[in-house]
Amino acid sequence: MIDKEYIEKIVNEVTEGTHIFLTKLVVDTHGRIKIFIDGDSNVTIDDCIKISRYVEKKLSLIEDDFQLDVSSHGIGNPLINPRQYPKHIGHLMQIKTINNEIFRGKLIKYENEKLTLEIKKNKEKKDKIIDLSEIKECKEVLKY
To answer: What is the pLDDT of residues 98-144, one digit of tens each?
Structure first.
């Protein structure tokens, strides 16, 4: 069986010193490997290809069969890594706290492990500061 920690180490090797970082890694019992990446700036298809080729080359040395999929973190998926927050400043976010409170507003600041949301209510704007330790889930909300 393919070792998840080994794959994580490989991904960290290829992304070290770049704007790209691992956000999620899934390895199932059938040899399917899904790697999700994000970046301090936009992630491109070339970034995904580079990581895919590097990981595939390293894994070709083992005898287990595997299926590899590398993709960007994707809009709508919860933010996992604190490095993701600065890129989302100015975006509409929905935050669910560990107390199951839900806040929706524009992310206007990320500083010292705290997010500041600008929440509009009855045509008034109010800032809400939320500590990262209080967040159960934070994801971008698309406007239609």
So the answer is: 999 999 999 999 999 999 999 998 889 999 999 999 999 999 998 76
What tens digit of pLDDT does each residue of 2-18 get? Answer: 789 999 999 999 999 99
Per residue in 57-83, is it b (16+ CB within 10 Å) or e — as a string? ebbeeeeeebebebebbeeeebbbeee
Sheet (strand 92-97) strand order: 124-131, 114-121, 102-111, 92-97, 135-140
Tokens 């491109």 sit on residue:
44
The first and second tokens of residue 125, run together, are: 């704007």
- Domains of the chain as residue ranges with CATH: 4-72 (3.30.300.70), 82-140 (2.30.30.100)
Instruction: Give the whole-angstrom CA distance, residue 80 versus residue 76.
Output: 12
